[in-house]
TrEMBL record:
Membrane topology term: Multi-pass membrane protein
Ribosomal protein as UniProt keyword: no
Compartments, record wording: Cell membrane
InterPro entries associated with the record: LipidA_mod_glycosyltrf_83, RgtA/B/C-like
Molecular function GO labels: pentosyltransferase activity
BP GO terms, sorted: lipopolysaccharide biosynthetic process; response to iron(III) ion
Keywords from the UniProt entry: Cell membrane, Glycosyltransferase, Membrane, Transferase, Transmembrane, Transmembrane helix
Primary localization: membrane
One term under GO cellular component: plasma membrane
Protein name: 4-amino-4-deoxy-L-arabinose transferase-like glycosyltransferase
Classification lineage: Bacteria, Pseudomonadati, Bacteroidota, Flavobacteriia, Flavobacteriales
Start and end residues of each Glycosyltransferase RgtA/B/C/D-like domain: 63-220
Classification via PANTHER family: MANNOSYLTRANSFERASE YKCB-RELATED, UNDECAPRENYL PHOSPHATE-ALPHA-4-AMINO-4-DEOXY-L-ARABINOSE ARABINOSYL TRANSFERASE
Length: 540
């Protein structure tokens, strides 16, 4: 029992994390990034080639393979038709990240309770729990890097077990590199070093050779796969690296200040996160000023470094949320200790930050019926979500008025859990496309017509994934390969009809149907042409 009590906070973090990540894990449709990962994993197993990775039987070297290896193992265990099973690896990676953040917080000199709160802030940050339900590369690379930084901190701060800490730091550094290349090295590791140098300073006289061991081991592990591919398939590897390098400078470019609202990516903690970033306000209110400065510098350094890269997307801010959760924890801890004695202006600020969440929770049951397309088949989920949301909202507001910040904080966590457990199934009530046609149905057409199916060009990963097997391209990298068959099926993007007529001008072309994988109708702005294909039968 004593051991259980000693580990109660990690166990509670584990329970909360799994409750946020596991329910309805297979309910959200597969997006383009996840489809790429799943296809590559499936082809690893079907082609029995785990090193020269492919997608649609074409070389796919843009991303290192560690997350895909783990996904492939999940596919072997649970089957590639089990979306829940395929997403389990990213769930475990996210839980690992949360537990490492808890342990890292304790390294900073924070007590167990504040470290526990930091873990809760992290797992309930929007892009963290969303990324933890979406099996792509980001969560793996940052989870492993956080473990590397945990052991690096111990190496820098402690005099015992230096070799062990260096080896473990280097190992996880390498695993992070094998998950998404140098992304986390740039967005998490380098900002950590900057923040550590500014706050604590480096005392490397007896540790510099261990630091070299960390980098050498991490680099050796991280570069093992790309070096293998470089020599095993040099032409495709060079083509991939050239294309990826050009994208960083020319694709999806945004101005330097594009990330100025980075704190909003924490979702429900947006306002507390912003307040925690206000150094003049916070410096006299924290119990461990050095640790607060460190997490603040780490957060800001990460944002600044990411802002220097021309290519920008909101999801690239995911690593920023890790130190920002630790930083926000200082404001939360201050409220736990001093909420009853806050000055009027401070209390108004807290009322606004947390009362707004309570108001949203109370209003949600009354707003939902107006935004849902239908409640048919979703009535029970709506009732459960409405009751849970209303109860949480009332508790949040009442607890604020009674100066019980502990209840406020934990009720917000409960509110988010209720949204996932009871509200997530309501996604189906928002969606619906009367023209939806799954590519899986093409198997029946293929069997009936006794034809082979091709794609004209620019395959759609989601379509390949749902179809269940590769669909050969006729036009790839500017090269045209006409099928040998006299009669075959052909998927064509609705914008490529001119190219279709030019390529098969001497053929008979008959349109049969339209494959539409969009979860929303054409009238919606979120309807994507990329998820549509016209299906033709082409014959000589």
């Amino acid at each position: 029992m004593k051991k259980l009590l000693h580990h109660k906070y990690p166990l509670l973090l584990l329970a909360v994390s799994l409750t946020l990540l596991l329910p309805h894990l297979d309910i959200i449709y597969v997006n383009i990034m996840e489809a790429r990962n799943f296809i590559t994993a499936r082809e690893m197993v079907s082609n029995d080639n785990w090193l020269l990775t492919t997608i649609n039987n074409l070389p796919r070297y843009e991303k290192p393979p560690l997350p895909t290896w783990l996904t492939a193992l999940a596919g072997i265990l649970f089957g590639f038709d089990s979306l829940l099973g395929l997403r389990l690896p990213v769930v475990f990676a996210t839980v690992f990240l949360v537990l490492m953040s808890y342990k890292f917080s304790k390294n900073l000199g924070l007590n167990q309770k504040q470290s526990f709160h930091n873990g809760l802030l992290l797992i309930t940050s929007f892009y963290i729990f969303f990324g933890g339900r979406d099996n792509q590369w980001d969560m793996y690379t940052h989870s492993f890097m956080m473990a590397s930084l945990y052991f690096l901190w111990k190496l820098l701060q402690e005099d015992s077990a230096k070799a062990k800490n260096a080896i473990l730091s280097g190992l996880f550094f390498g695993l992070s590199f094998l998950s998404k290349g140098p992304i986390s090295l740039y967005a998490l590791f380098l900002p950590f070093l900057i923040a550590y140098g500014f706050t604590y300073g480096f005392k490397l006289r007896s540790r510099w050779h261990y630091g070299i061991l960390v980098l050498a081991l991490g680099t050796a592990i991280g570069l093992s796969w790309p070096l293998y591919v470089r020599f095993a398939d040099p032409e495709s590897f060079l083509e991939t690296t050239t294309r990826e390098a050009s994208r960083w400078a020319s694709y999806n470019t945004r101005p330097f200040f594009y990330y100025w609202s980075f704190f909003t990516q924490s979702g429900i903690w947006t306002i507390p996160s912003l307040i925690a970033l206000l150094y003049p306000y916070m410096k006299t209110r924290v119990t461990n000023l050095k640790a607060y400065r460190f997490t603040l510098f780490w957060t800001l350094a990460s944002v600044i470094l990411l802002s220097l890269i021309p290519e920008k997307k909101s999801r690239y801010l995911l690593p920023v949320l890790i130190p920002m959760a630790l930083n926000t924890g200082f404001y939360i801890e201050y409220l736990f200790e001093k909420f009853k004695t806050l000055a009027k202006n401070e209390k108004r600020m807290a009322y606004f930050a947390f009362g707004l969440i309570g108001i949203i929770a109370v209003a949600l049951p009354f707003v939902l019926p107006f935004v849902l397309k239908t409640l048919d088949g979703f009535g029970l989920w709506y009732v459960l979500a409405a009751i849970a949301s209303l109860v949480c909202g009332i508790i949040i507001i009442r607890s604020l008025l009674k100066n019980n910040f502990g209840k406020v904080f934990y009720s917000i966590i409960a509110f988010q859990i209720c949204i996932i457990v009871f509200g997530l199934p309501l996604i189906g009530a928002f969606l619906g496309n009367p023209d939806y046609y799954s590519p899986q149905k093409l198997h029946a057409v293929k069997a009936k017509e006794r034809i082979k199916i091709y794609d004209l060009q620019n395959y759609c990963p989601e379509m390949i994934w749902e179809y269940g097997e590769p669909i050969p391209l006729i036009i790839n990298n500017g090269k045209i390969k006409i099928p040998k068959e006299n009669r075959f099926g052909l998927l064509v993007n609705i914008d490529d009809t001119t190219r279709l007529r030019e390529t098969f001008k001497d053929y008979k072309i008959e349109k049969m149907l339209t494959v539409d994988m969009n979860p929303v109708p054409k009238s919606k702005k979120s309807h994507k042409k990329r998820l549509e294909r016209d299906f033709y039968i082409v014959s000589r």
